[in-house]
Amino acid sequence: MNSVTRVGATVHRRAGPWTRTIHRYLRHLGAVGISWVPQPLAIEGDREVLSFVEGEVPLYPLPGWVWSDEALVHAARHLRMLHDASVDFDREAAIWQLPTHEPVEVICHNDFAPHNLAFDDGRVVGVIDFDTSSPGPRIWDIAYLATRMVPLTAQHPENAPGPEQVDRRLQLLLRTYGSDASPEDVICVAIIRLRDLAEFSRSKALELGKPNLVLDAEQYERDASHLESRSKQGSD
């Protein structure tokens, strides 16, 4: 949704009222040892400048190696490290692009999925695109990662593990992260998360003049309806 340009070892992106908060958050992560996220370098007019994160960021349709158990485990571990490092971030006077979701436990990335992960030989080596981060519960990010990487989508992606692998991979994600949430909890939050994302995408389609985002919103709605049907079948 942003306008992004790489210039050598830097990335230039459109800035917003939230950018200074995100830069402060990224500096916090760097200060506590999270070295695999972009570091803010400057704000130049209406553009922000960040360090470039090396690695392969997969495009859709996702390649087969993204669907390995190893890639899922690495993603879950990095999400846990990111969340744990965010707990003591000073949120006073913070401005976020997306609303806070209760209960506030961590700073959620809000788009933690393969398209924002940098890989090397199938292993996560970096996380990018933090501009929609905001405070929220851990499960908010876990549920979205599950949607994209288990996956929990209505249309089964090419190269992805078969539907019979969904329960096992969801349990693997939760176990690796160290969450005590149940698979049912994750699916419930994923439905809410997808409908929230659909609404956000429609608003951005109007704001940015990108009608393709309306198509994305429709897909998120289909995914949410698919999970509702799955959840209902499981309770019957």
Structural write-up:
- Strand 1 (4-7) and strand 2 (10-14) form a beta hairpin.
- The longest helix is centred in the C-terminal third of the chain and has 26 residues, at 183-208.
- The chain has helices at residues 19-31, 69-86, 138-149, 166-177, 183-208, 212-235, and strands at 4-7, 10-14, 40-44, 47-51, 106-108, 117-120, 123-127, 134-136.
- The strands form 3 sheets. The chain has a 4-stranded antiparallel β-sheet with strand order 1-2-4-3, with helices on one face. Strands 5-8 form a two-stranded antiparallel ribbon. Strands 6-7 form a two-stranded antiparallel ribbon.
- It is α+β, with helices and mostly antiparallel strands.
- Helix 2 packs parallel to helix 4, helix 3 crosses helix 5 and helix 5 packs antiparallel against helix 6.
Features:
two-stranded antiparallel sheet; 236 residues; globular; alpha+beta
- Tell me about the largest β-sheet: 4 strands, antiparallel
Structural Rg: 17 Å
Class inferred from helices and paired strands: alpha+beta
Shape by Cα distribution: globular
Report strand order across the widest sheet. Answer: 1-2-4-3
- Share of helix among residues? 40-55%
Number of strands: 8
Number of continuous helical runs: 6
Structure summary:
The chain is α+β, with helices and mostly antiparallel strands and 236 residues long.
Helices and strands in order:
Elements: E1 4-7, E2 10-14, H1 19-31, E3 40-44, E4 47-51, H2 69-86, E5 106-108, E6 117-120, E7 123-127, E8 134-136, H3 138-149, H4 166-177, H5 183-208, H6 212-235
